[in-house]
Amino acid sequence: MSHRRKYGPEGGVNRINVDRETLWEDSIITFKSLKFDTRGTLRVRFAGEAGLDAGGLRMEYCSLLAKAIFSREASLFEGSTDRFVPIYNTSAIQSDIFGLAGKMMSYMIVHHDVSFSCMSPAVYEYLVTGDLDKASRLPSLKDLPDWDTREIISSILESIHKKLKKLRVLEQINGRLLTIENTVGDMERGLNSMTVEVQKKKTDLE
User: Fold this and answer.
1) From 171's CA, which of 103, 114, 154, 177 has a CA 20 to 30 Å away?
2) pTM
């Protein structure tokens, strides 16, 4: 049994009329409406266009809405297309647009099999588990949305790695020198011991 049949109601339908030019704003109004039933499926009509929704229009709408959530217009996420991270947007936080975006995403996942494989692994981890400590171990340099900052940090890390590599080489050299020094010391002690023995035997012969 698919999750759509398992969790969806029998016959619940949300009929919505959206304009392609204002799809994000229209979707906010739609999902905020008290009449919107999260258990029901969608029946979509695009303003100014003919056609009945037999499934294709709602899937197109969901695809467009999924892109709109991560668009500059929504101003909720930033970064590369496969590692989006949330923007600190006080207006969106106060108006609970982040919560509404979560409602949109979960609705599309449950009812219309829309996937969202575009966020940073750290974001996924926190959303799924709520474990901030575990999620905080997952970010990488790729999660930085600012390319200039990423390049600066990358250069610093590269410089540190080169210095560490030189230190490791110096440690190896020092280790070898210490081994040589110990070997030479052992040889000197051995020669001194032999010299003492030779002198002792020479004294005994005399």
Assistant:
1) 154
2) 0.66
